[in-house]
Structure formats: structure tokens, C-alpha cells
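Q: Predict the bound structure with zinc ion.
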Amino acid sequence: MWPSGAKLAFAIRDDDISYFTSTEMFKRVHRPALSKGFPLSCAVIPEHRSSNNPNVPPKMRALDSRFPVSENEMLVDLLKEMLHSGRLEIVQHGLAHNEDRVEFTRSEFEGLTLDETKARVRRGREVLRRVFGCQIATFVAPQERLTRPLLRALSEEGFACYCGSAFSSPAEHRLRLLAHGDDLWRLRWRLKEGGLRTRPVHLIPSFDLYSGHLSRLFKAGRDVVKDVRQGILEALKRESYFVVITHSWNFYHEWDSIRPLMIDTYESILEFVDSLGGDVWKCRLSDVARAATEGVGGVPPS
Ligand SMILES: [Zn+2]
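A: Predicted complex:
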């Protein structure tokens, strides 16, 4: 199913990489992943709007302007070096992420027409191509929110895959549940038949390692690492994929002190995946999409 006889494709999607990203925080969070040979799919915000979103450092919030990722030279140098060594994929995370300065839960794409959506997608992709000198095949919807014009734009612009788990309107969200089922079904069965025939591939994240989500699970008495292990083993049994979402800024309290529980949970998950040895293909999101569509397996990163 996957390259080299692996039974599970495992990818890490790190969101909200932007002008504001601290390379020190990023390196600290992902040190165990990189030392164990896990590549990262970094969802980069080309021109991050400083809204009220916690993905902006407190002192920079709601400044009502955009910050281009190109101006964080330390970050660009680090990501380019990782990109060239095959340990990273640059993924497009919208253009500005949010446009509403105060109400940060709204995606920048909400309420836009197809032409407006396309213009934003193209501009963001062009910025990333120019800054990182690579092709951009994967798109992660800001706030995980999809809109119909966005789906059409991604298809017409030739993206290989996209992520997003909710629609902006409730009616569309209900439809999304049907579409999700269909996507999972297609992926599982088409893989066996020699490849998906539809592009772009909708890659549904398997687990979101987010502080609010994690504390809710802990409060409910869940053994999070055990649950994730179980999910990974189930995906392995189905010879499917498992995608973990991280946000390096969210491993810190308000961009300051580290959250040890988050770090420990992330490391425990990685240790478990690593212990599965050759059954796991450590890959990037675009590798999963390529293997799923071509049915021959992508090229594992060196
Ligand atoms: Zn985001």
C-alpha cells in the first residue's frame, strides 16, 4: 500500500508558521520529531494579519496590519535549510489567516466570491513560491474552515491536497459530514484498487494536539496518549494514514513559558510511532496525497 511495504503513512502538520514564529520555540517543540527522522509539513501564513488570534504574540495582537513571512529571515533560512535536506514541506495556510481584527474565529475566506477567493489563494501561493523557491501542492484552510468557492479555487488552481474539517455555514457543515464519509470511503477503497482518481485529495487530520482540546480530554478523565495509540493502531490495521496537527506557539502559555504536558504528550506519541519501525512511513502530507492518487507510493524524504 505505502512505500517499502509500510502499513501506515504518518505525517505531522505544524500550523500557523508565520512572521511571528520564533525559531527557538519551533526547534524546541520539534526537536524529538526531527531527531527521529519525522519530516514536517509546515502550514505557513504568507502575510499574517495581526488579529486577536492567540496565534499572534500578545503584544502584536490587533494591530490592524499584515506581516509578511519573508521579513522573518531567521525562520526563512531555517525552513529553507530543512526543505533542501528533505525534512520539510511548505504548505500554504491561506494568505492572512484572519481579516477581522477582533473576531478571530472567522476565516479570511468567509463570504468571499470565487474570484476573490482565487485572488487570495494565488497571491499567498506566489509569496510562498518566491520566498521558499519551491512548488506548493498542499493547502490548509485557516481555522479549518472550508467554503465552496475555496474548494473550487483549490481544484482549479491544481492543488494536490487540502485540509479543512468544517464548513463556514451550518448547512454546508452538514453536507461536509457526508462528504467526509465519502472521502474516507474513497481513500480506503481506491487505495486498494490502485489509486484515488479525484484531486485534490482531502486529507482529514486524525488528532489535533491543541492545549484547549487536550485539557478538555484530561478533564474528562481520558488517557490521551493511550487513545492516540489506539487510533494509530487502528489506522495501521486499515493500512491508512494518521495526521497529527501541532502549533508550535501553542506549546507555550501566551508565547512565554512552555507547557510540559503538551511537550510530554507529543513526545510520547512520537516515541510510540517510532517504535513501530518499518510498519510506518514517516512522510509529508503531499507524499500521502501522491501515494493515494498514484497508487505507487511517493518518494520517502531522505
Ligand atoms: Zn491556523
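A: The chain has one domain: 11-209+242-250+282-294.
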